[in-house]
Specification:
Low-confidence stretches: 1-11, 54-65, 339-348, 357-368
Mean pLDDT: 77
Strand content: under 5%
Distance between the termini: 63 Å
Strand order of the largest sheet: 1-2
Structural class: mainly alpha
Order of helices and strands: EEHHHHHHHHHH
Number of helices: 10
Length: 368
């Protein structure tokens, strides 16, 4: 326990020590709880900072979503969430259909062509003595590799038909890049590439249509995800508000228990407290008087002049006043002790001045 002028050594009973130990444990639990709440609060704050949206004050007023549009969005989100797996399955089926059509196009018009032989298997670099092949060609490609990726079931295969198209082009462009324009392989690759582009144009409208549909569905999925995050963080904010109210209530109860177990304030401490109260600003003084009024319904905290009988106040009221005063003066970069000492110094200086003035009058006094 600490007085206005410093610490005081006290002897407590077993009961008092038990109460203080329980208070200490409760305070430790609250500190842990507050730390956990602070982490969650930071998470909510970071979410709304990143999304560029301002979350209203996490009070009871914000615990109810008042925005009708948001209610509609949430309802729509839940409905779309239920349909998400169905949409995803339908999109996968459409893409598989496009891939089958593309595979049929390749087999019929490209891989079945009489000039497709050199491109069906990986280039035999060693057998053909192509020592610089890998220096010229960064990514070798052939139709057997494409076929294996199209039939892969382990997730390493193609995700969409455009990936297959890119690899088919790569086969012919590699051949054209490595071989001279007059070389047969170059001519064969160029001819098949032109033929492939013609057939690809026939399938392209369907591919474009599917791409647009997928973009729209992905945008909806992104909106769903964002809305889900908003709903989650809005609920988190409401829960935080509720839990903070509980912590505040718990703290207030602990404060009351602590005040009830406070020792009696000495006469000197009461005088020091009263001295500091007289030094407060009008605004802070009104707050102090409200503390008295809260604990003493008969006390009138209004009017031009207020008569505060410090000795008539309960111990809990006195300690509440002391804690309040301490917070105020510490916020001003001072301490209750320094204010009391300054006040005493001012009184001592005034007393010395009066004594010096009296002494001067005596020295200047002429005899009759």
């Amino acid at each position: 326990m600490e007085t206005m002028d410093g610490p005081v050594t006290e002897v407590r009973s077993e009961g008092e020590r038990a109460v203080m130990e329980e208070l200490g444990q409760n305070v430790d639990e609250i500190i842990v709880k507050v730390d956990e709440l602070e982490q969650r609060l930071n998470e909510v704050d970071q979410f709304y900072s990143k999304t560029g949206k301002k979350q209203s004050n996490t009070s009871k007023a914000s615990s109810v979503m008042k925005d009708k549009d948001k209610d509609k969005q949430i309802t729509s989100f839940k409905r779309r969430q239920q349909d998400a797996s169905r949409r995803e399955a339908a999109a996968a089926k459409r893409m598989q259909d496009l891939m089958r059509q593309f595979a049929g196009l390749l087999r019929q018009h490209i891989m079945g062509h009489k000039w497709a032989g050199p491109f069906m298997q990986p280039v035999d670099v060693v057998g053909l003595g192509l020592h610089d092949y890998y220096e010229v060609i960064e990514k070798p490609m052939d139709f057997s590799t494409i076929k294996s990726k199209m039939e892969a079931k382990d997730g390493t295969g193609y995700k969409n038909v455009r990936e297959i198209c890119a690899d088919v082009r790569l086969i012919f462009k590699n051949a054209m890049k490595y071989n001279d324009e007059r070389d047969d392989v170059h001519v064969m690759a160029k001819t098949l590439l032109v033929k492939f582009e013609e057939k690809w144009l026939q399938l392209l409208p369907k591919v474009d249509e599917e791409d647009e549909r997928r973009k729209k569905e992905e945008a909806e999925a992104q909106l769903d995800m964002q809305l889900a995050q908003e709903v989650t963080h809005a609920k988190m904010a409401r829960d935080l508000s509720s839990e903070l109210d509980e912590v505040e209530l718990h703290l207030e109860k602990l404060r009351e228990v602590a005040l009830r177990n406070c020792r009696k304030m000495s006469t000197e401490e009461k005088k020091a407290l009263m001295t500091v109260l007289t030094q407060l600003s009008p605004e802070d003084l009104n707050k102090a008087l409200l503390i008295v009024a809260q604990n003493n319904p008969n006390f009138q905290a209004t009017g031009q002049e207020v008569d505060l009988d410090i000795d008539a106040q309960s111990e809990s009221t006195l300690w509440k006043l002391k804690f309040f005063v301490k917070e105020v003066v510490q916020g001003q970069g001072k301490s209750p002790t320094s204010i009391t000492m300054n006040n005493n110094n001012n009184m001592n200086q005034n007393k010395r001045k009066r004594e010096e003035a009296k002494g001067t009058q005596k020295r200047n006094k002429k005899p009759w």
